[in-house]
Structures are given as C-alpha cells and as structure tokens.
Amino acid sequence: MLKNAMSHLLGTRRSREPGRPGGGGRVQLPLPSALSATLGCDAVGVPARYGFRLMSHLPRTGCVFDDGERWWWIVPSGSDLDLNWPAQAAYARGAYVPAVRPRLIHQPDSRTPYTPPIPLYLMVCQVTGVTPSWTSAGGSRVPSAP
Known about the structure:
This protein is an alpha+beta fold. Helix content is 23%, strand content 18%. The strands form two sheets. It has a five-stranded antiparallel sheet with strand order 5-2-4-3-7, with no helix packed on it. It has a two-stranded antiparallel ribbon with strand order 1-6. The N terminus and C terminus are likely disordered.
C-alpha cells in the first residue's frame, strides 16, 4: 500500500515538473549538431496560440520546437532561477518535454541555440497577462542600517 501511494505521489510530482528525464511520454529536444550548447539546455513551453506573436516580438530567437500544443523555446540551463514563469508556461529542465514528436520549426542563424531568457520571460508574461515577478536569490542585498 505504501509503495503504491509513493508511486502515485511521485507520478503526480513528475507531471508538474516536465524537466524530469525518464518520465512517461517525455523526450529530449534534439538540437541541430552544428549548434554549440555550452551553457546546457532547458526549454520553456508556451501554448502554441502565442508562438507567432512571441517570435515576432523577440529581439533574437534560438531553436523553437512545436509539438502541436506548445512551442518549446531553448534557453540556457538555469533560466528558471529567480524567475516566476507564468502558470501557462511549462519549464523543462534538460529540455525533456512531455511531447511525442516535437519538430524543429525555427533554427537561428547564429551558432547558439538559445533564446535570451529575460526577453522571453517578459514577453510570455505580457501575452499571458501576468505581471512579471522574480525573487532575489540571496534575500536583501543592501545591509540594514543599525
């Protein structure tokens, strides 16, 4: 009984964290071999209905994949640190996404696969109607007065 409960709990947890490798129906987005991903790769999934709008307003777009329901934007690893991505966005560590056959729909002209995460974050907030918010990693950086 405990084993079944733990399996159910871990299964529920995985579904909320699409970045976990090995979860059911998850694949790692395959980057073109000509691109250099020295910063590691994560992915941000946005509902497909926002895809063209985001792409047209970003100053630079890296690799973008489409799985029918979401467009997945490749960002450097750790692009979720201190950022509160809107609920409509899915963040996938290691670019392991809950998709069956994602296809590359945009490849950058440069040798890097990344979309800059801060402009992407701000645009995702704008199109989803969410106020951008982030947390300070170290708390207050200004010493308090005595």
